[in-house]
Amino acid sequence: MLHLKTITKDNWIEAISLKVREDQRNFVATNAVSLAQLNFLENFHAKGIYFGEEMVGFALYGIDEDDHEYWIYRMMIDEKHQGKGFGKESVKLVIEDIKNIKEERHQTITLSYEPTNTHAKLVYEKMGFKEVEGLIIGDEQVSRYYF
Length: 147
Fold this sequence. Notes:
Blueprint: E1 2-6, H1 12-17, H2 31-38, E2 44-51, E3 54-63, E4 70-77, H3 86-101, E5 108-113, H4 118-126, E6 130-137, E7 140-146
Parallel strand pairs: 4-5
Antiparallel strand pairs: 1-2, 2-3, 3-4, 5-7, 6-7
Protein name: Spermidine acetyltransferase
Pfam families: Acetyltransf_1
InterPro entries: Acyl_CoA_acyltransferase (IPR016181), GNAT_dom (IPR000182), MshD_Acetyltransferase (IPR050276)
C-alpha cells in the first residue's frame, strides 16, 4: 500500500536518487532541485511516496504565494516503478493530504505539466483535474482540481 512520508535528514538521499525515464527528463525538475527550492518556499511539503518501506516517488506541494491556493509543484514516480498504477494512487494521496491540512478558504489544487506529457495529462484528468483553458505558465498547461 502506498503512503506519504515527509522528506527528512534520514531519507533525503533516497529522494534525490529517484529518477524518471530518460525520455521524461524534460518534464520534471530533479528531486535535488526540488529540495533546494524548498528552502525558499513557505508552507510547502516535500514527501516521499512509499510502497512499503521503499521510496518509489516524490511530491512537492504547498500554498503558492501568488494565489494563496495549493499547488503541486512536483510529482514523480521512479523509472523502476512506473506502469504499476503508483502515479494515480500518489495523486490521490496528495489530494487527501491537502484536504486534511487545508483551511476552509482553500478551494483548489493547481498543477502544470508539459503539453507533450500525455500520460501525466491522462492521470491528472482521471483524478479530477480540469485544464484551465488558455492558461499556460512557462510552456506548461495549467490544470486545476476543485474541492
